[in-house]
Backbone:
């Protein structure tokens, strides 16, 4: 159901209820989808920080990578009059909720902490609606990562690939050595992530024209046919049991040496850390072939819902926003999550080599124009457009459809509003 339709239902039924300001100051209900090992440790930092400030944390965790199940739960909560104090939302969906007039602004906190100075401009803009800050960002995830089990790479006698030809050569060597080349899950958003990686490998300008601008000429170009051809070849290195597999289970295959490589954002690094694996020693993290000069960003954030009788943010909501953007929390959260701080200037000395590379690449890509929003993770387009395009990719990756037919379907899907 569209956000606008949800709000119409609310107006019709008069169910815009909530908790009182006094209750909100003591109890903060938070809806999120961080349920894997590394994610749970990361959100636990925020829970502990809020508890120390005297607030009661009410955890509303909904399992499921990419947050589709969480968004369904949120819509149900809002319609039933039980909107949480805060909910994990990102990208264009932030403004969609803000346009319904159900969010509170947190301008006072943003001004106090000088968010405009301390956030990358591309991200600062996303946190606002109609000139007001309505969301607080947690961290930056780089989506275009390739993880490689170091022992598997050594056994296959391969080298870290920087081109698709090199990648397929390594994958073939792993297969010959009896190693599953690529660990892959079986959910649409995971298919979309791999496809997006291949689009980015064609260059940041190509990515922006196709993904951000939805340029029809680019979407129907021979280069886009080449993208689908590359994705088709990649699927030949997946195992036949991937259907329905969660992303962290695919990560576990790489961690345990059952598979050699995985395409996944750097939240997967939190799983490696949780398993006491060390970057550079136990595994390699490198940019997806052809994408080393670009950076697809995925920024998690919380928006804050109006509570009954309150047009302004409650003390608990303001405390939550302030805590999220504090340097100490930004640092500790990302250390557990596998991300890097969204706040600029946080000391990176205690981070592993992957995170340090991520931060350096982020700064370089911002300056070079290669810092682009992830489509697969809700940062580049609204739900309708992204969903339609995702359906095309998933159909292609799970059928014998030709690349040319998939390109035609993709161009049509991009027109979905």
Residues:
């Amino acid at each position: 159901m569209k956000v606008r339709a949800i709000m119409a239902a609310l107006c019709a039924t008069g169910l815009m209820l909530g908790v009182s300001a006094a209750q909100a100051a003591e109890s903060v209900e938070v809806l999120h989808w961080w349920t894997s090992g590394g994610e749970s440790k990361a959100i636990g930092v925020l829970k502990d920080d809020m508890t120390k400030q005297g607030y009661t944390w009410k955890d509303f965790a909904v399992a499921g990578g990419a947050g589709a199940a969480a968004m369904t739960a949120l819509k149900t909560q809002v319609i039933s009059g039980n909107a949480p104090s805060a909910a994990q939302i990102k990208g264009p969906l932030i403004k969609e909720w803000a346009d319904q007039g159900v969010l509170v602004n947190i301008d006072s906190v943003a001004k106090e902490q000088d968010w405009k100075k301390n956030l990358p401009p591309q991200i600062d803009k996303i946190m606002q609606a109609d000139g007001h800050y309505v969301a607080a960002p947690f961290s930056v995830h780089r989506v275009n990562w390739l993880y490689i089990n170091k022992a598997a790479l050594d056994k296959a006698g391969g080298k870290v690939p920087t081109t698709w030809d090199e990648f397929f050569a390594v994958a073939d060597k792993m297969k010959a050595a009896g190693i599953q080349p690529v660990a892959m899950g079986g959910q649409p958003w995971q298919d979309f992530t791999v496809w997006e990686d291949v689009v980015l490998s064609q260059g940041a300008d190509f990515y922006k024209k196709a993904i951000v601008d939805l340029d029809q000429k680019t979407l129907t170009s021979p280069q886009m046919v080449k993208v689908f051809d590359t994705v088709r070849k990649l699927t030949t290195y997946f195992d036949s049991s991937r259907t329905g597999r969660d992303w962290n289970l695919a990560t576990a295959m790489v961690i345990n040496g059952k598979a050699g490589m995985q395409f996944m954002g750097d939240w997967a690094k939190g799983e490696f850390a949780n398993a006491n694996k060390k970057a550079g020693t136990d595994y390699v993290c490198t940019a997806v072939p052809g994408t080393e000069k670009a950076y697809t960003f995925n920024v998690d954030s919380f928006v804050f819902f109006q509570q009954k009788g309150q047009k302004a943010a409650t003390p608990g909501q303001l405390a939550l926003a302030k805590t999220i953007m504090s340097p100490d929390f930004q640092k500790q959260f990302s250390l557990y999550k596998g991300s890097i701080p969204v706040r600029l200037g946080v000391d990176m000395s205690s981070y592993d080599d992957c995170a340090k590379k991520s931060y350096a690449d982020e700064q370089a890509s911002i300056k070079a124009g290669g810092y682009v929003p992830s489509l697969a993770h809700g940062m580049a387009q609204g739900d309708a457009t992204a969903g339609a395009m995702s359906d095309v990719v998933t159909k292609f990756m799970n059928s014998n459809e030709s690349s040319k037919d998939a390109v035609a379907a993709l161009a049509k899907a991009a027109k979905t509003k």
